[in-house]
Amino acid sequence: MTTFKKKTYQFILLSILAPLILLGCASNEETVDTTNPNFDHELYDGKATLGLNGDFPPASAAEAIARGDQAYRSKDTDLALYEYIRALNFPVQENIDQAYYKIGYIHQQRGNYELAQVAYNRAVIIKGDNIQYAAALGIIELKQGEQKNAEKQLLRSIRMDQQRFNNEKWEPTQPDFVQQLKINQTSPLNAYIAYAVIKDLNARHTEAQALYQACLRINHKSRQALTNLGYSYYLSGDLKQAEMINRRATTIYQTDKRAWSNLGLVYIRSKRYSDALDALQNVMPVAEALNDIGYFTMLEGDYEAAVSYLERAINASPTYYAKAHHNLKQAKKRQIASPPVKLTNKWGNEQSQATVYSVGN
Fold first, then answer.
1. Paired residues of 13 in beta bridges
2. What letter does residue 49 receive in the DSSP assignment?
3. Domain boundary assignment for the chain
């Protein structure tokens, strides 16, 4: 795999959300003082907490979690986060793994991946046999670029899922490991999709595609599986399949930027630049679409087209377009230094300007 691809994958990683488990279990925790308005906790990042206190403090961790669930359903995530963290203050730690998981989920939704990782990790430490906790931690570690740790957690989650089916013969090192998998509606599809991303990162595209397809057999409308499968076909050079899958994704998810961007990449590599422009304009201003086409045609070695599209991007922008000017300068340099021929797929140390993979919010 080229250095560019490795950097690209780390830069853009694709979107898999662990479903929030809104559970509340009764317990006999002792009541503690949770009314302190000077609330300060490493896992809280919301608004000032002075106005978040209810008239009566929760009597137990279970009650605090239940309050947090209610606040989350009401879309008050600051209050939900506050209540989940208050649950951590009780001396009896029953159900605390749930609080940590839900704290991690809210931070993941907000893009606070470091805090999400801390919370998920604590949930896993408390309850190591929970399939979804391991999956959530692995996904966040993947988004953080910690591929080895991510793979370990994702495989833990998948192994636990296979144990549900008594599938003791499953072994990820075997060539037919995907065919040996047993998956159903209760399986952590997010873990399987994230594990497929790791396969793509290691240029094992056939295995990645088989994993995405296995997930699509369970959920044929999975946004993450569809967009990642389309990009995987693009990486492996199967442009016909890439176009078919990406067009399917854009039909189902008509406003999804990743799906349209991936379809645009397929058209650019096929030198169908007008089709690429039509695709990209669905999710970005025309100046940005022209710039992206110019940038990627430059990487493909079609410098004449690159200069043309980048100049159009500059003219189409209502303000000074620094990125397009920079790309145009690079394209003209390459046009002078190299013959206008199609290059290979090895793009060196260039960095992609498109979003391609989906592994979380």
1. 357
2. G
3. 284-337
Token representation of residue 198: 């790791």
Helix axes 239-252, 223-236, angle to 10 degrees: 160
Q: State the Cα–Cα distance between residues 344 and 239, nearest whole angstrom.
A: 15
Q: Which of 1-10, 115-124, 150-159 has the lowest mean pLDDT?
A: 1-10
- Across the chain, mean pLDDT equals 84
Q: What CATH number labels 284-337?
A: 1.25.40
Q: Which residues contact 11 (CB under 8 A, 6 or more apart)?
A: 351, 352
pLDDT in tens, 164-179: 999 988 899 888 899 9
Q: What CA–CA distance (Å, rounded) separates 301 from 268?
A: 11
**Cα separations in angstroms, 297 against 59, 92, 260, 306, 328:** 63, 61, 17, 5, 11
CA–CA distances in Å: residue 313 to residues 11, 221, 277, 318? 24, 34, 11, 10
What distance in Å separates the CA atoms of residue 58 and residue 66, rounded to the nearest whole number? 10
Please check whether residue 165 is in contact with residue 182, taking contact to mean a CB–CB distance below 8 angstroms: yes
Per-residue pLDDT tens digits for 277-292: 999 999 999 999 999 9
160: nearest Cα among 197, 127, 200, 113: 127
Beta bridge pairs of residue 357: 13
Both structure tokens of 174: 């075997």
Alpha carbon distance 185, 189 (integer Å): 8
Phi, psi torsion values for 13, nearest 5 degrees: -45, 150
Distance separating alpha carbons of residues 293 and 312, to the nearest angstrom:
10
Report long-range pairs for 17-20 (Cβ below 8 Å, ≥24 apart): 17/108, 17/109, 17/190, 17/360, 17/361, 18/105, 18/108, 18/132, 18/135, 18/136, 18/139, 18/188, 18/190, 19/132, 20/72, 20/102, 20/105
Q: Which residues contact 60 (CB under 8 A, 6 or more apart)?
A: 26, 27, 28, 29, 31, 90, 92
For 310, other C-beta atoms within 10 Å of its C-beta total: 28
Q: What are phi and psi of 357, to 5 degrees?
A: -100, 155
Question: How big is the chain, counted in residues?
Answer: 361
